[in-house]
């Protein structure tokens, strides 16, 4: 069944995406498959993955380093928006999908491909994120999803690949499905599908269990410039090293573990385990700095924007008109969000213990109860009368019946 002449395939080196190569050619009549592996700091050696794609029949195997773009243009804007899906998940995996979609579209346009493909199944969120993002970036490209249609079990998929000489070395099988990048890890499946089952330490790699964390706290000072993390402990740092160093500092203290029942876009609930040490610390520190530098009405209104923003990213609408409009609002709010936040890292907790900014709206002279108090207490009586007047009128009418 011919669907495209030349396809760029998002490639991870796993069973599904590897089998996609011969499947696209032999079942769907694709003449040329080009694979693209995005290096987003997942910690894997990508040269063997590149060679694996060629062995599987790919005409060309691309490896693109997108780490800096990922942090600067996807993670940092999400931090400015304090993006937490369902108030808990910092979108560490979801944020990678629009970038990978962009890289796929760019590769397809550069190589004259008429389609892109991915190995997502029909049950998860990533299929939506890829399909919708690709359509937004280039609606003329076809999107192929073989694993969504072939209906093969894992065993049948491996058997199919072996028909074309592919080898899948037998290893001690892990029951977990894991996705990793610079921002964190997501772990699901296996025993974790029982929401009563406590995750064992084997599922974690970026964070220490509390029993193994230091008995003394560490302090880290995070500097922000217009809402963007730019300094650690007084030293200016580029985006990727800043995330890497903070991952190590926070992970050592067991910070950044999330265990939640998540509402997927496709209508089912799933139990998800996440590790996102740096991202969780940065969102907490950024939100605290906003409390020092934003007016009350902007702070309160922005909270609703943040919830909508998080839902858009989670639901695959990074490249959408509403997301662009919210970006403009968030960027406007960040003009004065510069300063330093001091965080105490200890036993799984990132505790904000200090904040400082030249743009601070906090006035010690107004807040103090000492003799330096400059607040006019006499003004409060008139303010309370006017503020409470609607309630007073309502109560009087109610009493009269």
Automatic annotation (TrEMBL):
L-aspartate binds at residues 121, 125-126. Residues 6-166 form the Arginosuccinate synthase-like N-terminal domain. It is found in: Cytoplasm. Its main location: cytoplasm. Pfam families: Arginosuc_syn_C, Arginosuc_synth. Pathway: Amino-acid biosynthesis; L-arginine biosynthesis; L-arginine from L-ornithine and carbamoyl phosphate: step 2/3. InterPro entries: Arginosuc_syn_C, Arginosuc_syn_N, Arginosuc_synth, Arginosuc_synth_CS, Arginosuc_synth_type_1_subfam, AS_cat/multimer_dom_body, Rossmann-like_a/b/a_fold. One of its GO terms (cellular component) is cytoplasm. Its EC number is 6.3.4.5. This is Argininosuccinate synthase. It comes from Halomicronema hongdechloris C2206. The lineage of its organism: Bacteria, Bacillati, Cyanobacteriota, Cyanophyceae, Nodosilineales.
């Amino acid at each position: 069944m011919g669907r495209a002449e030349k396809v760029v395939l998002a490639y991870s080196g796993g069973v599904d995406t590897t089998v996609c190569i011969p499947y696209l050619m032999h079942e769907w009549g694709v003449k040329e498959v080009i694979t693209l592996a995005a290096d987003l700091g997942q910690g894997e050696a990508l040269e063997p993955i590149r060679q694996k794609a060629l062995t599987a029949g790919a005409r060309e195997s691309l490896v693109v380093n997108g780490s800096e773009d990922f942090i600067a243009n996807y993670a940092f804007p999400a931090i400015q928006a304090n993006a937490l899906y369902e108030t808990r998940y910092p979108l560490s995996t979801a944020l990678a999908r629009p970038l990978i979609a962009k890289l796929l579209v760019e590769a397809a346009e550069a190589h004259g491909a008429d389609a892109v493909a991915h190995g997502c199944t029909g049950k998860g969120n990533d299929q939506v994120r890829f399909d919708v993002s690709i359509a937004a970036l280039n609606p003329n490209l076809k999107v192929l999803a073989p694993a969504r249609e072939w209906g093969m079990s894992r065993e049948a998929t491996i058997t199919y690949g072996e028909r074309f000489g592919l080898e899948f070395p037998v290893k001690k099988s892990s029951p977990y499905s894991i996705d990793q990048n610079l921002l964190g890890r997501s772990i699901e499946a296996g025993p974790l599908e029982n929401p009563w089952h406590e995750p064992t330490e084997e599922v974690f790699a970026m964070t220490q269990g509390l029993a193994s964390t230091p008995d003394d706290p560490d302090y880290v000072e995070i500097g922000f410039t217009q809402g963007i993390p730019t300094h650690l402990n007084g030293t200016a740092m580029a985006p990727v090293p800043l995330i890497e160093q903070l991952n190590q500092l926070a992970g050592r203290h067991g910070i950044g573990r999330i265990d939640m029942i998540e509402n997927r876009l496709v209508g089912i609930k799933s139990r998800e385990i996440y590790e996102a040490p740096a991202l969780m610390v940065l969102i907490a520190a950024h939100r605290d700095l906003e409390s020092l530098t934003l007016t009350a009405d902007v702070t309160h209104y922005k909270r609703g924007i943040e919830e909508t923003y998080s839902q858009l990213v989670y639901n695959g609408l990074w490249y959408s008109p509403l997301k662009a409009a919210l970006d403009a609002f968030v960027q406007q709010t960040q003009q004065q969000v510069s300063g330093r936040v001091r965080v105490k890292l200890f036993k799984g907790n990132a505790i904000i213990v200090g904040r400082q900014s030249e743009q601070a709206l906090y006035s010690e002279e107004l807040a103090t109860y000492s003799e330096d108090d400059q607040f006019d207490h006499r003004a409060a009586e008139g303010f309370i009368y006017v503020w409470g007047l609607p309630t007073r009128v309502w109560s009087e009418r109610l009493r009269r019946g």
